[in-house]
């Protein structure tokens, strides 16, 4: 949800849409620095989160952050920006910060994974008393982006000695080559995830359909049921007892209509996607007798 008008407005937007969980950007997603959070706005956000029972609430880190880079200036800037993201999440009482692991600028995948883990260790060590988690997002694997294989995520966690402040936000499975469309593919995918990373690491899902097919390694979100995933994978997630306590966060396209700045209004596309997901919660009726 948008934070236009202040972070507390995002809670009201979520409430209007009947949301049970919430993801926000705490600053411009395409900027290195953001304005300091307003203390009154922070108090209002935390109060309304408590009153509404919306949980979990997480933030998504700036897209500019690249913890896999070997370029000293960009690396220092990325680490500093991520520490700021953690500070903002901590101030707001969020579960954690969703983070794209990073993109190799030189060297091997193993080098890039070690750089990511090292940067996370620096960031976490800088805030040893903080509770906000790092939620590594499984990626589609475009270009030299890391995190599209479960083994990548396992390697990062291994470098961090299994830090309890590192969770996982899995997304982009289909594009990365994991078949969760077929029933057997779904079973095999999460068995592989459990072997490599562990299901206990899974904290939230991003629920997006994909414009591109299995193994395309192209990150293009589609409305629920309109893409290459279809409805069945979402139905399986919603009825899988292993994930009963995990949130599904949508990142589907919103309406592109003008509203006054800071307005709290229903977004028709959000309503549509949320309604589709909610409808899948209802067990399918048995087929009528022949």
Give the structure's gist in a few sentences.
The protein has 290 residues and is α/β, with parallel strands linked by helices. It has helices at residues 7-16, 39-52, 72-92, 109-126, 150-159, 173-176, 183-196, 232-239, 268-279; strands at 22-24, 57-60, 96-99, 102-103, 133-137, 145-146, 166-170, 202-206, 209-210, 221-222, 247-249.
Structural overview:
There is one protein chain. By secondary structure, the chain is an alpha/beta fold. The protein has one domain (7-279): Divalent-metal-dependent TIM barrel enzymes (TIM Barrel, Alpha-Beta Barrel). The chain is 38% helix and 13% strand. It has helices at 7-16, 39-52, 72-92, 109-126, 150-159, 173-176, 183-196, 232-239, 268-279; strands spanning 22-24, 57-60, 96-99, 102-103, 133-137, 145-146, 166-170, 202-206, 209-210, 221-222, 247-249. Strands 1-2-3-5-7-8-11 form a seven-stranded parallel β-sheet, covered by helices on one side. Strands 4-6 form a two-stranded antiparallel ribbon. A two-stranded antiparallel ribbon has the order 9-10. Helix 3 (72-92) links the parallel strand 2 (57-60) and strand 3 (96-99). Helix 1 (7-16) packs parallel to helix 2. It is globular, with a radius of gyration of 19 Å. The N and C termini lie far apart (47 Å).
């Amino acid at each position: 949800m948008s934070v236009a008008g202040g972070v507390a407005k995002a809670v009201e937007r979520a409430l209007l849409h009947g949301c049970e969980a919430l993801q926000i950007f705490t600053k411009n997603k395409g900027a290195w620095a953001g304005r300091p959070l307003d203390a009154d706005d922070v108090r209002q956000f935390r109060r309304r989160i408590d009153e509404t029972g919306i949980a979990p609430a997480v933030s998504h880190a700036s897209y500019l952050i690249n913890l896999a880079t070997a370029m000293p200036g960009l690396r220092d800037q990325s680490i500093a920006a991520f520490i700021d993201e953690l500070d903002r999440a901590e101030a707001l009482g969020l579960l954690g910060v969703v983070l794209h692991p990073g993109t190799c600028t030189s060297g091997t995948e193993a080098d890039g994974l070690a750089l990511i883990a090292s940067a996370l260790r620096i960031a976490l060590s800088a805030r040893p008393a903080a509770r906000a988690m790092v939620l590594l997002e499984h990626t589609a694997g475009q270009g030299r982006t890391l995190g599209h294989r479960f083994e990548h995520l396992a390697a990062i966690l291994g470098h961090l000695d299994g830090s309890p402040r590192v969770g996982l936000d899995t997304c982009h499975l289909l594009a990365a080559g994991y078949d969760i469309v077929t029933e057997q593919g779904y079973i095999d995918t999460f068995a592989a995830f459990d072997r490599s990373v562990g299901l206990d690491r899974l904290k939230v899902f991003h629920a997006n359909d994909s414009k591109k097919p299995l193994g395309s390694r192209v990150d293009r979100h589609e409305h629920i049921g309109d893409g290459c995933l279809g409805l069945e994978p979402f139905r399986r997630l919603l009825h899988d007892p292993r994930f009963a306590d995990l949130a599904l966060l949508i990142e589907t396209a919103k309406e592109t209509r003008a509203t006054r700045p800071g307005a709290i209004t229903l977004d028709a596309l959000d309503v549509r996607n949320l309604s589709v997901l909610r409808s899948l919660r209802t067990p399918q009726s048995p087929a009528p007798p022949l």
